[in-house]
Design brief:
This protein has 231 residues and is of the alpha+beta class. The chain has a single domain, classed as Lipoprotein localisation LolA/LolB/LppX (outer membrane lipoprotein receptor (LolB), chain A). The protein has 4 helices and 10 strands. A 10-stranded antiparallel β-sheet has the order 3-2-1-10-9-8-7-6-5-4. The N terminus is likely disordered.
Length: 231
Amino acid sequence: MEEGRPKGAYRNEVRMLRPAYLAGALAMMALVLAFPVRIMAAVPPAQEIVERMLKTIAEIPDMVSADAEFRLRIGKSLNEPPDCVFRGTAKVVSGQPTLKIDERTTGLFCWVVNRYVIGQRFEATERLESFLSRFEFDVLGEKLVGNDHYYLVEGKAKDPRNDPNTMVGWIDFDHGLLIEGTVGYSWGSIDTEQSYRRMGSMWILMHQYLYTGRFNTSMEILYSNVRFGSP
């Protein structure tokens, strides 16, 4: 006890402070009621997010084609001229993509890239639904972009011996669009960014950027002159 303070002084101070604490608590409650706290919606299950993306893809007509230009750069930024340029027609019929290259940069290296890289990347034989069924998905994070809800979804291969063995990406849940992500392989990974254009009630992929740090190589893909029901 401090020198000179009468016995029971602390007890009297506590009694005096209680009304002040009560008034403060009531004031805080009034502020909460006056300015409601924003409550984020519950995060949907990972499988629901993936299915929302598949629904957006399913809304595209059975037959769609577009002019495509591929720009390959090795150890270069997007501001520098590409090492190889490929131009052709990309087509998706009942979910199966095909690609026909009509023009390319001359040289053996660009020929090899066209034959063994672009062809294998776009001439897929497995349907997307079947491919995704090989993964277990989980939600790692969320963010709000404007009014759209984005979720960070990770997929791990059920059999880790398969390639690719992991994938993670931001999905715009409101529109069912994969915006950016990374696909992991036994030899390294490929990062991707994608942008879309709305055509009527559909969202159509218009630009892709792929990059692999293992080889310091990027592929930029631009789509134009989109056609529906083309032969």
